[in-house]
Every structure is written in C-alpha cells, then in structure tokens.
Write a structure and sequence with these properties.
By secondary structure, the chain is mainly alpha-helical. It is built from 4 helices and no strands.
Length: 126
C-alpha cells in the first residue's frame, strides 16, 4: 500500500492544528488560535503541494521539533508528543523533497541526453 505524497504531513499538521484549536478554546488564548490557524493553513498548502507552504511547514516543524526536545529535556513529558509529531512531519516533507529532486534531476539529464543525441544524429558520417 503506497501513500500519496505528503499525506502524512498534511494529516499531522491538521491534527496539530485541531489540538491547538482545543487549547485556544479551553484557555481562551489568542496565541494558540493564531498557531492553530497557521497549522491548518499549512496543512491545506502542503496538501495542495504548494512549494512555499512546504518550505514554511518544514521550517516551522523543525523549530517545533527543536523546542519540543528542549522542553522534553527540561522535564515536560507532554513535549514528547509535540516532538514526535514534528519529527514525522519533517520526515515526510524531506522524503518528498528528495523524491522531487530526483525526478527533476532525471528529467534534466534526459533532456540534455536528447539534445546530444539529436546533434549526433544530424551529423552524417562521410
């Protein structure tokens, strides 16, 4: 069973956004609401494979992972969930970037090879 590209990252960003919406509702915090909306908009952009949203989501999840690990080291055990979600988001996005880079590299190599092949075919040996 193969998964669609960036499906895991999209789902995890959406789940994380809904968790932050719950925190915003229960504590009445506008900061949590802002980050919840950021996560949900990033989930939508990553699901549509928007390159800007993918870059922002990668940077955002890397920062979340870093701070999640710092809080985990400091003794907040609930940060393990945050760090795990951020790690899986980063892993999925980096796998997608690697796959896209390979495809673009192969297409670039094929077009250069075709150009060289056409040049060789046009020359007639005497």
């Amino acid at each position: 069973m193969t998964m669609k590209r960036l499906q895991l990252a999209t789902y995890l960003l959406a789940i994380y956004g809904f968790l932050l919406l719950y925190y915003a509702y229960s504590w009445g915090s506008l900061v949590y609401l802002a980050f919840a909306l950021l996560n949900l908009s990033l989930a939508y952009g990553v699901g549509r494979e928007n390159r800007t949203a993918i870059k922002v989501a990668l940077i955002y999840s890397a920062l979340e992972f870093f701070f999640g690990l710092l809080f985990l080291i400091a003794g907040n055990l609930y940060s393990a969930v945050d760090a795990a979600i951020s790690f899986f988001i980063m892993h999925d996005i980096l796998g997608y970037i690697q796959e896209v880079y390979r495809k673009e590299k192969d297409e670039e190599g094929k077009t250069e090879g075709d150009k060289r092949g056409e040049e060789e075919k046009s020359e007639k040996p005497k």
